[in-house]
Amino acid sequence: MWSFIARSLEITTIFLLASIGELLNQRGGVLNVGIEGLMLLGAASGFLTALWSGSILLGFVVGTIVGGIFGLLHGFFSITLKVDQVVSGMGIWIFAMGFTTYWADSYSGPLPKGLSPPGIGGYLSPIFFLAVALVLIVWFLLSKTHLGLKIRSVGENPSAAEATGINVARTRYLCVVVGGLSGGLAGAFLSLDYFGIWGHLLTGGMGWIALALVLFSLWRPFILFAGALIFGFVWQFSISPEAIAPGLGIPLGIIRMFPFIVTIIVLVVISTPKFRRKWGLAKPAALGEPYIKE
Amino acid sequence: MRLPRLKLEKVVALKGWGAAKVSIYSIITAFIIFSAFLLWEGANPIEAYRHIFSFAFDPRLGLVSTLHRSMFLLFATLAFILPLKAGLWNIGMEGQFYLGTVGAFAVAYAWGDLPSGALIPLMLIAAALFGAGYGVIAGFLRGKLGVNEIVVTLMLNLTAFWLIQFLIVGGPWAGIGECRSRPLPDSAVAPEIGGLPFTVFLAIAISVIFFILFTRSKVGYQIRSFGSNPSAARHVGMSPFKISVLVMAVAGAIAGLSAYHMWAGDPRFYMIPQPEAYKSIGDLTYWGIMVGLLCLLNPLAAIPVSIFVGALKVGGPVLIRRMKLPFGLDLLFLGILFLSFVAFQFFYRYRIKRVKEKR
User: Fold this and answer.
1) Which CATH architecture has domain A2-279?
2) Were both Cys, which of A6, A172, A289, B258 would link to A124 (CB 3.0–4.6 Å)?
3) Nearest to B62 by CA among B328, B307, B332, B277
4) pLDDT at B179
5) Which pLDDT does position B21 carry in this prediction?
6) ipTM of model
7) How many domains does chain B fold into?
8) Closest CA to A31 of A203, A184, A215
9) Same domain? B125 vs B216
10) Same-domain status, B28 and B159
């Protein structure tokens, strides 16, 4: 039972890491639909670095930085070149699918003995606490600091923000790079610590669930945390249902659909008029729109 | 010596030839970058491209396969184009294709002893209906509640993948021994016209119908005006909800039809292969996004671009056999092409101009 909880908290970690940065960059007005891509790139580069250097830590560092570089690239496309943010995010995602398949698939398999993560029995990765800390930091940043105010104003009304002397482009760049770093870290954690293996398109849709979580959270870090806990449980349940409900007898294919169907249901629930009236629309007003100085 | 001073100049959104040139430049750029990867792998790029296209267009080797895959891609592209005309991102072609598979095979297994003339139309109808039903989920939710259709269609892809996995791996449709489905009855196989399955011509016909629809019809006008300005769409006489459902239903139906084309139009299948193999065919639908964007949502331009990409897909594996290059180069090319396309988007709205120095 404890090992089930530990595993689902690790899934929560992956969702949290991938989505907390995305939450920040959406608050700043930039939508990145390519989280799945950031995770794939972080996972592949982290895995290969660890394989070649023999250092897990270095793998984490490289995976995170690679994520950051692609966050920066998304920023360059969507902030400087003012390309449609959905097109650019799709580009990051599809590039990542292609590049990691070409680059890392020939190394498919587990990490060597000394590097593989500790066994499943009751081990909880310390990265979990890092992810929780990140939630607190982002909450504090957004609601208590001057920088957070700047980020929110850039996401709500960039021209008004510019008028008060905020550098819109620079603030947005900061947000997308942080979003990229956290996506890369989520990927590195997935391949190095959660699985300890590389396989074709390892993320299996987790990045898209992370994106859905950000929409679900109404852009609030603590709701995001709660959502990540729920989805960590749902995902782990779909992988090993017998830990919770022995003798359930539902075929694997059916049970694996579970997280994706729950995601859709959750998105539907938060989109109902009743729910919206109660919680208000917190969507950053300028989300998805390039800021063009007139 | 002085560097010329450059200035950005805003241009009105490019149209027609100007816009097409941007797509062509991004393809050329992608080929240049991809060549660098080939050189890195120790292969001569010119030689590699010669191998790819000479195999893909050789009537004795890859031509039939190329046309078959191209038309599969064309179905996926058309299913992507139509919703985006109305401003909806349908990236669920993969899921709609799987559901079309379920529909077509359910009919074939249930009434396998019917003659071809009855069975094939029934399979096509079932494939289209299942695909359409699956597409409508996203269209309905978007139209009614404003749920993000990108996330929903992707979740539906993953759901449908596991549905097929359930059906053919040890499930009700499992074949004997291997992880693949039972074979289709002989009467379900697509009849050929000039050596090609008739669905090839169906795909081309749909492209032409789409072109006429977009340029000549009232519905096409309503869809386009909704896509370019959702708030003004109320004045053109169709509710946003109806448009969302309509475009996703038609798109889903087309992606569903591609399932019949894929499995019943290629002698190597006539069944659903093991998950790894059909997954890689599902991935082919992601090219639909790329082709749709590259040809600027023009359904006629999608035909040659699809054939070009189909040739790459069919000829690509030759590099593994003949030049000992690694697996996945074709997906890498897709990624590079997409990124270079994104970068070139800039030129739709800006132009770099040299500023004349004052003497």
Assistant:
1) Orthogonal Bundle (1.10)
2) A6
3) B307
4) 74
5) 87
6) 0.91
7) 2
8) A215
9) yes
10) no
Q: Based on the fold, state whether residues B166 and B221 are members of the same structural domain.
A: yes
B286 and chain A in contact, CB less than 8 A: yes
Domain-located, residue B49: no
Domain check: are B172 and B297 in the same one? yes
Over residues B11-47, the pLDDT tens digits come to 666 667 778 888 899 999 999 999 999 999 888 999 9
Residue B207: count other Cβ atoms within 10 Å of its Cβ: 23
The answer to the question of residue B48 being in a domain is no
**Beta-strand (E) ranges in A191-291?**
197-198
Q: Does B20 touch chain A (CB under 8 A)?
A: no
Taking only residues 163 to 182 of chain A, the set having a beta carbon closer than 8 angstroms to any beta carbon of chain B reads: none
For chain A, domain boundaries: 2-279
Residue B112: C-alpha distances to residues A100, A107, B108, B120, B121 (Å): 42, 44, 5, 10, 13
Characterize the bridge pairing of strands B5-10 and B192-193. Answer: unpaired
- Other beta carbons less than 10 A from residue B169's beta carbon: 18
Give all strands (DSSP E) within A50-151, no chain letters. 109-110
Find out whether A190 and A43 touch, Cβ atoms under 8 Å. Answer: yes
* Residue spans of beta strands (DSSP E) within B4-53: 5-10
Co-location of B24 and B156 in the same domain:
no
b/e for B331-349, b at 16 or more Cβ within 10 A? bbbbbbbbbbbbbbbbbbb
Q: Give the residue from B252, B244, B210 showing the smallest Cα distance to B226.
A: B244
Q: Is there a domain that residue B224 lies in?
A: yes
Euclidean distance between CA atoms A153 and A138, whole angstroms: 16
**Residue B204 belongs to what domain range?**
65-316
Residue B214 in contact with partner chain A when CB distance is under 8 A = no
Shared domain for B235 and B160, answered yes or no, is: yes
Mean pLDDT of chain B: 88
The size of the A-B interface in CB pairs under 8 A is: 135
Lowest mean pLDDT among A115-119, B140-144, B193-197: A115-119
Does B330 share its domain with B225?
no
CB atoms within 10 A of CB B310: 25
Query: Which pLDDT belongs to residue B316?
Result: 85
A69 interface with B at CB cutoff 8 Å = no
Distance CA A231, CA A254 (A): 17
Is the CB of residue A64 less than 8 Å from the CB of residue A181?
A: yes
**Does residue B217 form part of some domain?**
yes
- Do the Cβ atoms of B207 and B298 come closer than 8 Å? no
- pTM of the predicted model, to two decimals? 0.92
**pLDDT of res. B339:** 94
Angle at A30 between CA A25 and CA A32, to 5 degrees: 80
Same domain, B269 and B164: yes
Q: Which of A83, A101, A257 sits opposite B163 (nearest CB)?
A: A257
